[in-house]
Amino acid sequence: MKMMQEEGNRKGPWTEQEDILLVNFVHLFGDRRWDFIAKVSGLNRTGKSCRLRWVNYLHPGLKRGKMTPQEERLVLELHAKWGNRWSKIARKLPGRTDNEIKNYWRTHMRKKAQEKKRPVSPTSSFSNCSSSSVTTTTTNTQDTSCHSRKSSGEVSFYDTGGSRSTREMNQENEDVYSLDDIWREIDHSAVNIIKPVKDIYSEQSHCLSYPNLASPSWESSLDSIWNMDADKSKISSYFANDQFPFCFQHSRSPWSSG
DNA sequence: AATATGCTCAACCGCCCACTA
DNA sequence: ATAGTGGGCGGTTGAGCATAT
Predict the structure, then answer these.
(1) A129 within a domain of the structure (yes/no)
(2) Closest-CA residue to A252 (of A63, A104, A20, A21)
(3) Does the pLDDT at position A55 exceed 50?
(4) Is it the case that residue A44 has pLDDT exceeding 80?
(5) Tell me, in Å, how far CA of A241 is from C1' of C12?
(6) What are the angstrom distances between the C-alpha of A20 and each of A58, A123, A209, A222, A247?
(7) Rounded distance in angstroms from the CA atom of residue A135 to the C1' atom of nucleotide C17
(8) Helices in chain A by DSSP H: which ranges?
(9) Tell me: the pLDDT tens digits for A172-225?
(10) A23 and A91: one domain?
(11) Among residues A176, A202, A228, which one ends one of the domains?
């Protein structure tokens, strides 16, 4: 009922094939209809799992790598202000996910907080981000768009990336993605995270098979699920035009060596 | 070199809320 | 008005890697 936990849904780390499939179906249908995408893609995953993978890993607007000092300070400020509202905090840091910030806080910030409770260490790398900066700079981060969870006008960084830049973020992040930008990048296959490579079906070394797509359940599930001809024709045209799927490389992935 | 410990982060879980029929 | 459903969120876990002993 609630979870609609289908039997045999895959769990655990995503494979390259799964990522490719997900990216392509998000490309086709957008990043809202997760349950639909999970079903029609043939991925044996829940919609939730697909959404999480996209939001936290595959989304082209994501940054990778260490938090910058500005981001660290912002996280500290916003956490002092909002507490563990990670998604809310993440909206103030374009390219960072709530999960990433949450993890970061757990590993870094809490440690720093504990250190602060002890006698002050002059070598603390975080001494510049002490509570004084929190209290003096919060005016820059007044939230005017996120008063309630999932309010109708609320947007996340991966939706628009446009309206909530602070001064710090503008300095640090000049490449704020709009949704149009994101899709344009996908279209042009020129994103940092996802780089189209070649027709993966034609390469023996990277030849990927899609048993789910080829299985009878693929077609039968489509027939039962689809009630929108437009959706159906989207996939049909993709297959017909040999556009689907494109391949990509991750800058870092669990299944790549670097 | 082997083992222990700590750290990072992807992924899952369960709850809650908004939307819709 | 309300029950069903999907999506979003915060909390938590655990595998894999790095570092220390």
Answers:
(1) yes
(2) A63
(3) yes
(4) yes
(5) 44
(6) 9, 45, 11, 19, 6
(7) 38
(8) 16-29, 34-40, 47-53, 69-82, 86-90, 98-104, 110-117, 131-137, 167-172, 179-188, 211-214, 216-225, 229-240
(9) 333 333 334 433 443 443 333 333 333 333 333 333 333 333 333 333 344 444
(10) no
(11) A176
In a domain, A122, yes or no: yes
A257 assigned to some structural domain = no
Q: Is the CB of A106 under 7 A from strand B?
A: yes
Q: Are residues A130 and A145 in the same domain?
A: yes
The answer to whether residues A100 and A160 belong to one domain is yes
CATH number at residue A79: 1.10.10.60
Q: CA of A67 vs C1' of B8, distance in Å?
A: 13
Averaged confidence pLDDT in chain A: 57
Q: What is the mean pLDDT of residues A19-45?
A: 84
Per-residue flag: A167 CB under 7 A of strand B: no
- Give the domain extent around A78: 69-176
Q: How far is the CA of A40 from the C1' of C12 (A)?
A: 30
Residues 6+ apart with CB under 8 A from A229: none
Q: Cβ of residue A254 near strand B, that is under 7 Å?
A: yes
Same domain, A73 and A159: yes
User: What is residue A38's predicted lDDT score, i.e. its pLDDT?
Assistant: 85
How many whole angstroms separate alpha carbon A97 and alpha carbon A59?
Answer: 10
Quote the number of domains for chain A.
Answer: 2
**Which residue's CA shows the smallest distance to C1' of B7?**
A107
Residue A255's identity, in one-letter code, is W
Are A142 and A224 members of one domain?
Answer: no
**A78 and A121 assigned to the same domain:** yes
Residue A236 lies in a domain: yes
